[in-house]
Amino acid sequence: MVMALDSKAVAYSAPGKALLAGGYLVLLPQYSAYVVALSARIHAVVSEEEERANTHKRVTIAAYSPQFKDGEWVYSLGDGSDKSSLSPVLTSAYGNNPFLEAAIRTVVAYSHASGSRMLKKNVSIKIYSDDAYHSQDDRVTSPTTQSRFHYHLNSIRDVPKTGLGSSAALTTAVIAALFSFYLPDLDPLDPSNLDKVHNLAQLAHCTAQKKVGSGFDIASAVYGSVQYSRFAADIISNELFDPNSVESVDKFSNLVKNLVESDWKMTHIPSSLPPGLSLLMGDVKTGSETPKMASMVLDWREKNPARANEVWTLLDQSNTALVNTLYQMSTLAEKDPRSYAQLLEAGIEDSSPNILHQLRENFLEIRKYLRIMTIESHALIEPQPQTDLLDKCNQIPGVIGGVVPGAGGFDAISILALESKIQDIKDFTSKSKDSEFSDLIWLDLKEQRIGLQRESLSLYNNL
Ligand SMILES: Nc1ncnc2c1ncn2[C@@H]1O[C@H](COP(=O)(O)OP(=O)(O)O)[C@@H](O)[C@H]1O
Ligand SMILES: C[C@@](O)(CCOP(=O)(O)OP(=O)(O)O)CC(=O)O
Q1: What is the ipTM of this complex?
Q2: What keywords tag this UniProt record (predicted)?
């Protein structure tokens, strides 16, 4: 499909994430998480769609995700003159996309309250996502394009996800591009506006999920790799989930604006893995249900407060120790690059103790407490097959350590390894006859610490 883009188009992209440390604990504001932003990104290109005629005072917002069959969602929008007419109404036939819908509704409400004069324009949103987000089993090879984005035979509902946080990256990119389109005098990347984009994206993501999660995925989609601790869950009041519960469009829009412009009192400290270390994400091809696991863990916590507190305190100390070791390594690399190069050269196989051994210990310690939570809460956070896989990975030369990322479960592992050994590690697992590696696919990605970024339109030529 060749898409013509006019010069007024704007494009933004946001990264996926790996929650390396702090799963579950990050649901509470007193704990922090370490989130790595990934090179796998989702792009949104917004432009005016002039060829569509306006009917009955309704404006059209058409979203296209051309990499997927039936990837088209057309919404109509009023002009703000009656009660719910600023809420997008789906008019196309292929089923809904709650994240897109909530992103549109939230940014339209904010732009209305901010006096945008662009809300009467018909809009087109084009979405492109990097391959690592989805299984490539149904990929269609197109002989005509050398594009970075590949196309699928099936609709997005039927293509398995790899768990990198596609909805958070999609919501963030769409919000930033629409924000820039509706409020052309504001640069979404200007730090004070970036916080607004973040708050809008959190609000939209919570609306679409009908719950307030920890928000670490939106935080890293906006700010990139971060040490994150959450905002207070109760700042998002229920009426913000449903514009129909508020008596007027103006009132709803003002509620959104007030929330978006308030101080969310959360922490997002930029971070980055030490040089010479790389993150590997392994897709294990079976899925777990995060919400169900989170409710099992929270249930365990509620029923066993003293014990859960003890375990979480120790797990939090282990998470902090890991982050401190990574920080110490980055500092050493900066202050004494020669010793740092020698350290990487010696590797973890060197018998005299070095900071790489300490890093491995940090991972093993985190896993110890995740396994205690697995046994005691019955949520399969690090189930036995994942224990076996992670232990096997630790035996491969160049691997420093690894964990089940995020909520854990069967579907993924995250490994930190020496950058110089990445190809050898991939060759090792693909040639190995060990059953532990048989379902493992390394995703094509690395850390890219940058969050939201503006993109050049030339990236989408010939798509
Ligand atoms: N490339 C895309 N185009 C359109 N919608 C997308 C795209 N990627 C993700 N989405 C939306 O996000 C949803 C997936 O979100 P979710 O189930 O929370 O998974 P994840 O863990 O990847 O965030 C999809 O069902 C779809 O609504
Ligand atoms: C349990 C959690 O703390 C972490 C879940 O992390 P994942 O990365 O597993 O999440 P999904 O992308 O939603 O599947 C819940 C939360 O923080 O919201």
Answers
A1: 0.98
A2: ATP-binding, Kinase, Lipid biosynthesis, Lipid metabolism, Nucleotide-binding, Steroid biosynthesis, Steroid metabolism, Transferase
Write down the mean pLDDT value for the chain: 93
Superfamily of domain 277-442: GHMP kinase, C-terminal domain (3.30.70.890)
Kindly report each contact of residues 331-335 with a partner whose C-beta sits within 8 Å and lies 24 or more positions away, as own/partner.
Answer: 333/274, 333/275, 333/276
Pairing of strands 33-48, 123-129: antiparallel
**DSSP 3-state assignment of 59?**
strand
Architecture of 10-270 per CATH?
2-Layer Sandwich (3.30)
Q: Which amino acid is at 192?
A: S
- Any residues with Cβ below 6 Å from ligand 2, and which? 19, 23-24, 26-27, 163, 165, 213-214, 216-217, 290, 294, 405-407
Amino acid at 184: P
pLDDT per position as a tens digit, 68-116? 999 999 999 986 666 667 889 999 878 899 999 999 999 999 999 999 9
Contact between 133 and 16 under an 8 Å Cβ cutoff? The reply is yes
Task: Tell me how far apart the alpha carbons of residues 65 and 3 are, in angstroms, rounded to a whole number.
Answer: 12
Site of tokens 């039927």: 158
Dist. CA 444–CA 192, nearest whole Å = 33
pLDDT over 60 (residue 19): yes
Which is nearest to 107 in space by CA: 162, 191, 40, 175? 175
Domain boundaries, the chain: 10-270, 277-442
Q: How many helices (H) and strands (E) does the chain have?
A: 11, 15
Mean pLDDT computed over 274-286: 92
